[in-house]
C-alpha cells in the first residue's frame, strides 16, 4: 500500500512513521521541496534498522493508495481539493478541525474511504488519545486506525460537531487561559509557588515552547479567547464584593470541570480549610 503524506511538518512526519508498518511505500509532498526531501531522508534513516521497511521517496505527482493531508487548518480545504483526487483507496487528514475537513474529503474523493484523525497530543508526548471521524470506512482506514492503536494510542470515534465543540474548550479556551496567565504573571521565587501556580507555570512553559503558528490556527478555527477574557473580567469586577465572587466561584464549580464534584468536596488540593488558602 502506497501512502502519500501531503505536508512534511511535524504531524506529517509523525503520521508517516506511525503508519509505516502497514504500508510498503511512503512519499512526501510539501510546498517546500526541501521539507519533503528532509522528511523522506529522516524517515528512511529512522526505519533503516527495521525489517520490511517501506520504500521512502519524494512525491512524483502520481496516484497513491492512501493520501494523508497534514497541513495547517486554514489550508486543509484547498490541499484536500488538490491532492484528494489522487487517492485510489482512501483519503485522510490529521488537521485538528473536522467539520470543514470531512466535507472537503467527501467532495474530493467521493468514491474512496475517508477519515479525519486528530491526535490530541504532540508527537513527542505519544501515546495519547486520538479522535477519529470515519466518514466512509474500509480496510485501508481500518489499517491506519489499527497502526495508531498499536502504538498505544486510544483511538475513539466521534462526530465532526462533537469534536469541534470539544476543541473550543480543550484547545481554544484552555490555550487562551494559559497564555493569559503567562502574560499577567510576574516572576517570583520558587518557594512562593502554590499547588495551583506551579502547574500553571509549567503549562505556560509547555505552550510557549511550541510553534506559535499552530496555536494561532487553533484560535482562528475555534472560538474561545473572548469567553476567557469575559470570564476574567467578571472575576476582576467581583473584587471587593464577596457575594459576586461567591457566585463566580459557584458557577466555575458547576461548569464543565466541576460538575462531577460532590458537594462539600475540596475545590483545590491545597485548600487547608483555614483563613489562608493553600492555593
Automatic annotation (TrEMBL):
Signal peptide (residue range): none
Keyword set includes Phosphoprotein: no
Boundaries of every Prephenate/arogenate dehydrogenase domain copy: 1-279
GO biological-process terms attached to the record: tyrosine biosynthetic process
Region of interest (Disordered), ranges: 257-279
Entry keywords, A to Z: Oxidoreductase
Database matches in InterPro entries: 6-PGluconate_DH-like_C_sf, NAD(P)-bd_dom_sf, Preph/Arog_dehydrog, Prephen_DH
Gene3D superfamilies: 6-phosphogluconate dehydrogenase C-terminal like domain (1.10.3660.10), NAD(P)-binding Rossmann-like Domain (3.40.50.720)
Top-level taxon: Archaea
A GO term, aspect molecular function: NAD+ binding
Keyword rRNA-binding: no
Protein known as: Prephenate dehydrogenase
Species of origin: Haloglomus irregulare
Amino acid at each position: 500500500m502506497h501512502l502519500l503524506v501531503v505536508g512534511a511538518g511535524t504531524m506529517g512526519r509523525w503520521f508517516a512513521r506511525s503508519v509505516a508498518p502497514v504500508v510498503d511505500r511512503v512519499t512526501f509532498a510539501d510546498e517546500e521541496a526541501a521539507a519533503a526531501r528532509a522528511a523522506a531522508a529522516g524517515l528512511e534513516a529512522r526505519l533503516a534498522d527495521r525489517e520490511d521497511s517501506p520504500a521512502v521517496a519524494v512525491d512524483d505527482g502520481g496516484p497513491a493508495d492512501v493520501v494523508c493531508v497534514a497541513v495547517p487548518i486554514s489550508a486543509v480545504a484547498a490541499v484536500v481539493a488538490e491532492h484528494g483526487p489522487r487517492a485510489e483507496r482512501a483519503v485522510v487528514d490529521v488537521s485538528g478541525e473536522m467539520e470543514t475537513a470531512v466535507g472537503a474529503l467527501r467532495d474530493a474523493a467521493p468514491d474512496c474511504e475517508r477519515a479525519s484523525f486528530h491526535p490530541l497530543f504532540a508527537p513527542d508526548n505519544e501515546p495519547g488519545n486520538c479522535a477519529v471521524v470515519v466518514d466512509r470506512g474500509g480496510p485501508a482506514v481500518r489499517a491506519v486506525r489499527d497502526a495508531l492503536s498499536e502504538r498505544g494510542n486510544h483511538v475513539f470515534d466521534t462526530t465532526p460537531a462533537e469534536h469541534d465543540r470539544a476543541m473550543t474548550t480543550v484547545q481554544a479556551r484552555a490555550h487562551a487561559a494559559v497564555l493569559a496567565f503567562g502574560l499577567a504573571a510576574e516572576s517570583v521565587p520558587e518557594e512562593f509557588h502554590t499547588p495551583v501556580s506551579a502547574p500553571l507555570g509549567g503549562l505556560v512553559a509547555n505552550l510557549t515552547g511550541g510553534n506559535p503558528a499552530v496555536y494561532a490556527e487553533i484560535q482562528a478555527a475555534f472560538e474561545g479567547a473572548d469567553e476567557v477574557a469575559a470570564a476574567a473580567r467578571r472575576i476582576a469586577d467581583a473584587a471587593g464584593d464577596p457575594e459576586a465572587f461567591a457566585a463566580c466561584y459557584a458557577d466555575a464549580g458547576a461548569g464543565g470541570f466541576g460538575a462531577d464534584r460532590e458537594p462539600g468536596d475540596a475545590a483545590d488540593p491545597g485548600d487547608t480549610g483555614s483563613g489562608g488558602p493553600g492555593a
